[in-house]
Amino acid sequence: GTDPVVLDLIGLTKGEAWINGKSIGRYWPTMVADNNSCSDKCDYRGNYGADKCLSGCGEPSQRFYHVPRSFLNNDTNTNSNTLILFEEMGGNPINVCVKTITIGSICATAGYGKTLEIKCPDGKTFSQIAFASYGNPQGKCGSFQVGVWESSDSASVIENACIGKQSCSVSVTSSTFKINQGGNDGQLAVQLLCDGSDPEIGRVEKVKNLHNDISREKLSLNESGPQSEL
């Protein structure tokens, strides 16, 4: 497959991991994020603050580690990979496992004058708008809410720019969202589903399958040999 691969290191404490001799870095799942700093409201505007828009409070700060597919052994003859764990504090590896991540939706925000750019994984396209609002939206991914004001054209602009495509970009300006007066301090927040199929990928796969069928048919004819008439 092509989905991202991760190593779930829950149950371990602190150390380093190698996949087929290549280090994926040090891990520290027992480093738990503070339990009292998260909020349902998220707004990055204004002065920088390290505590803005925090998530995952009370959870391990280092649990899932990305494993580049280039590290994995794709040899069909062996089809095996070796994981080596160096544990410094005596963790329990019984729950360690390898997972693939399927991206079902994508969230993004962008301030006025910026360009919002989003992209689905290979083979997928944007199929549906879960949320789209240009104005002063509140909340975070999965719980966005419309603020005090918004452009009534928010959804239609995003639909025209993104639906049916693997990637899209939107210039975040008042003119883009058809606001004639004001609206120069707005923010765009979107959440789109990535479960559509890319028609180009589908066409290529059909051609490959057709070529494979033809090749198998030719091989079958060659193996059967010429037929003689009686």
TrEMBL record:
The keyword Cell inner membrane is assigned to this record: no
Record's keyword terms, sorted: Glycosidase, Hydrolase
Listed InterPro entries: BetaGal_gal-bd, Galactose-bd-like_sf, Glycoside_Hdrlase_35, Lectin_gal-bd_dom, Lectin_gal-bd_sf
S-adenosyl-L-methionine is among the record's keywords: no
Molecular function GO labels: beta-galactosidase activity; carbohydrate binding
Pfam families attached to this UniProt entry: BetaGal_gal-bd, SUEL_Lectin
Signal peptide annotation: none
Biological process per Gene Ontology, one example term: carbohydrate metabolic process
Domain named SUEL-type lectin: residues: 110-195
Record PANTHER family: BETA-GALACTOSIDASE RELATED (PTHR23421)
Protein name: Beta-galactosidase 7-like
